[in-house]
Structure formats: structure tokens, C-alpha cells
Design a protein that fits this description.
Blueprint (H helix, E strand, L loop, with lengths): L1 E9 L3 H21 L3 E8 L9 E7 L2 H9 L1 H13 E10 L1
Helix pairs in contact: 1-3
Amino acid sequence: MVKHIVFWKICGAVEERERCIEEFRRKTLSLQAIIPQIKSAVIGANICADSGYHVCIDSVFASREDLEVYIDHPEHLKVREFMDENTYDKTVFDYEF
């Protein structure tokens, strides 16, 4: 199993960040219906949003190969583009368990 966690800092004021998080959550839910390699994916908004990162995705895949399928999937690339347009910093952490 592979855990894939990504943290972002979102551009804009609190209201703009909240809208971005909700749109990201909606887009991620749709990915789960399209990409069967996603075993689970949870979007979390930082409850201390004025410090550190604002939002993260915590997702699980059966293998590194499944993670790669997800990473390269055209629908995931659309969500990545949305996040790239609305964020200014990102950290990715993947590990096997």
C-alpha cells in the first residue's frame, strides 16, 4: 500500500481559500469515481489556516504503479492544473506501508 499526501498553501483571502478548498473537494470526489486505483482520498482543511499549509489530500493506493496511473491520469492532471493556478506552495510526501 502507498500513502500519497500533498499539502498546499492557497492564494487569496480566507473566503477565496474556502471556495478553493470546496472546489478541490468536489473535484477530488469526482476523481474517485473515475480512477479506480484510488483506494481512498480525504481532503482536509487546516483548522489553524493562518499558519502553515491550508489544505491537504491524504490518499491511499494499492501499489506504486497504481499511484503512477493516478498521477498521469488526464482527469487528475486537470485537478492538478486547478491547484497550481490557485496555490503558491506545495509539499508532497509518499510512503509505503
